[in-house]
Amino acid sequence: MKLNIAFPATGAQKMIEIDDEKKLRAVYDKRMGAEIDGEELGEEFKGYIFRISGGNDKQGFPMKQGVLSQKRVRLMLSKGLSCYRPRRRGERKRKSVRGCIVGPDISILNLVIVKKGDGEVAGLSDVMVQNRLGPKRANNIRLMFNLDKDDDVRKYVLGRTFTNKAGKEKTKRPKIQRLITPQRLQRKRDEARMKKKAIEKRLREEQAYQKLAKQRMKEAKERRASEASKRKSRNSKKE
C-alpha cells in the first residue's frame, strides 16, 4: 500500500510504499478522520500522529466519508456532495465510491500530519515549500502581511521567477483585484460627475417640456375659446 503523507506546516508531501502487513494492520479497519500513531508505521515516524484524510482503491475509486463499508457501493449523488461534480444544472448521477473504512484493497491512503514528532523526516519536515499562488485581492494581501491602508500592496504580491525560451529570467505576478489607485479614484469621480450631469440635463429637459406643454395647452384653450365665440356670433346673426 502506498501512503501519501502531507505536512501542512511546511507544505511538503511525500509518498512511501509499505508492504509489511504488520505495519499496515495499524490502518486497517480505521475510518476516515481517525488518528493513528506514526510509530506503528515505522521507527522514523516516532512521536508523529497522522489523520486519515482519504484514499483510492486499486481501480481508482475514491473513499467517501459517511459510507460505513469496506466495499464499493453505488450512490445517487447530486451537487454539493463529495466525489461528484455535476455538468448540468440539477443533474444527479449514480456513481461508484469506496466506503470510508480502510481495507486491504486500498491502493493509496492519504495521511495528514497532526502532530510532529521529535525526529525529522527527510523530504517532509526538513523542507519548506513556498506557496506558488498567493492571494490576489487587495484586502486579502493586507490581511496576510498585516498591512495598513497606507502601505503599497503591489510590493507584497507573491510572484514566481522562471527562465523563458530566450534564456532570460522573468518574474510573473498576478493582477491585484479591487486595488484602489489614483486612476481608479479619478475614474469614479468622472463617473459621478457624468451621472450628476445626466441628472441635471434630464431635469432641464423635463422643465423645458413642462413649459412647452403648458404653452401648447394655453394656445389650444385660446383657440377653442375663439372658435366658440365665432360660432356664437354666427348663430346670433342668423336669428
Would you write up a description of this structure?
The chain is an alpha+beta fold and 239 residues long. It has helices spanning 21-24, 138-145, 182-238, and strands at residues 2-7, 12-17, 35-37, 49-57, 72-77, 93-98, 106-115, 160-163, 169-172. Strand 1 (2-7) and strand 2 (12-17) form a beta hairpin. The radius of gyration is 38 Å and the shape is elongated. The mean pLDDT is 90.
Strand order of the largest sheet: 2-1-7-4-3
Oligomer: single chain
For the largest beta-sheet, the strand count, sense and barrel status come to: 5 strands, mixed
- Average pLDDT for all residues: 90
What is the straight-line distance between the termini? 123 Å
User: Order of SSEs, N→C?
Assistant: EEHEEEEEHEEH
Uncertain spans, ≥5 residues at pLDDT below 50? none
Rg, rounded, reads: 38 Å
Q: What level of helicity do the residues show?
A: 25-40%
- Tell me, what's the shape? elongated
The overall strand count is 9
The SS-based structural class is alpha+beta
Beta content: 15-25%
Helical region count? 3
List the helices and strands and how they pair.
Layout: E1 2-7, E2 12-17, H1 21-24, E3 35-37, E4 49-57, E5 72-77, E6 93-98, E7 106-115, H2 138-145, E8 160-163, E9 169-172, H3 182-238
Parallel strand pairs: 1-7
Antiparallel strand pairs: 1-2, 3-4, 4-7, 5-6, 8-9
Summarize the structure.
The chain has 239 residues and is an alpha+beta fold.
